[in-house]
Give the backbone structure.
Amino acid sequence: RAAAVAIGADTIHLLGASLWVGVLLVGFWCLGRPVSDERNSGSDKSSANSGEAEVLPGEAEVLPGEVEGLVVEGGSQDVVLLHQVSSLASIGLPALVVSGLVGTILHVDSVAAAGSTLYGRLLIAKVALAVAMAIVGFINQRQLAAAHIAGLNWLRQMQRRIGIELVMGLIVVGLTGVLVASTPARDAYRPVLVAEYTQGELKTELRITPARVGLNDIRIRFLASDGSRRDVNAVTIRVSSSTVPERKVPLTIVNGSEVRATGVSFGVPGTWKILISTLSETGSDSASFEVDL
């Protein structure tokens, strides 16, 4: 069920990002179109007949230096189209935010996982870029909504701002695609639990990776009180919990002072007891650890 939710969230997220970027592409294209010959010729005929530009009732007065590319009351067809399609961004943005939050909860289960995995770092970069993109988009929306009389200079400035937002959007879509194809942070993150137990002259160092419910690797080192290696002749490890009976764990000897166990199953959450027994030339020792998973 969680996998289905994750796939659905990723799909909605990509669709929302595509919608947002699609709106930007349309806006960039609209503002980049040259003034039509028909519109220019009509203006020329009007000027030739009257000797000066005529301002019709309901139209805004032409500003000096802004005749070419004039937009009256948002009024070229291209800018009217831009007004219409920009409203679609209000649909894409909520879809992006909601699906992004769902995906983050499913794929990143801790702050440490976000900061120490490739997936997490890419996600942080994507979120930062998306926030900057949203700020630029908000400014562009306000500029567009406030535009009543605008000439060629205004069109060029708006196109540049939308171009910046578009480039940022394409990068965000690219990062989203990479994230969808990457190993989620909760699976890639492998924290290490380190614990020590000292009894007399023997120090037992325990390392468990990734220290969570499921399969784990255990590494055990034996040290003297001064930190030097301490060889032992035999080692046994037993693990148990309040709901799982005690069992012996198969070991691999690395050297006289280090052993490892791979694929050790901690199948249920809770407190697990790890009992390490050793036999050396000086006698037998034991070290007991309790870890919460």
